[in-house]
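Students often ask why we bother encoding 3D structure as a string. The short answer is that it lets us treat folding as translation between two languages. Here is a chain of 126 residues written in the first language.
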Amino acid sequence: MEVINTIGRRKASVARVYLSDGTGKIVVNNKDYTQYFPNGLLHYVVNQPLNLVEGKFDVKANVYGGGIKGQAEAIRLGIARALVKLDEENKALLKPDGLLTRDPREVERKKPGQKKARKRFQFSKR
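And here it is in the second language, the structure alphabet:
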């Protein structure tokens, strides 16, 4: 099997994911993913698509932008897309859990004359 590369995005994070046959090793920015992501919940997020599909794959991911949660979810989307590229039958396993959908939520911009995006300064009638 040749190396399959895909892209995953979430918030401001962009992940380039390279999937190949292997032993199940996941490397993020030249570090083991357990070192790169300190939280056990983020380990689960990254492994989610691989747990649903049978087989052992090595994953190499380059990720930048955003925070660690957005980066983990960007890698998850990239891995899911790579698994579908590998075998179209994997789509039926990944789609019900929402792993192939790019989360469109982004940060709303701050407007002038307001404290934040939606919060206003306190109004005083008198």
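Translate back mentally: The mean pLDDT is 93. Keep this in mind for the problem set.
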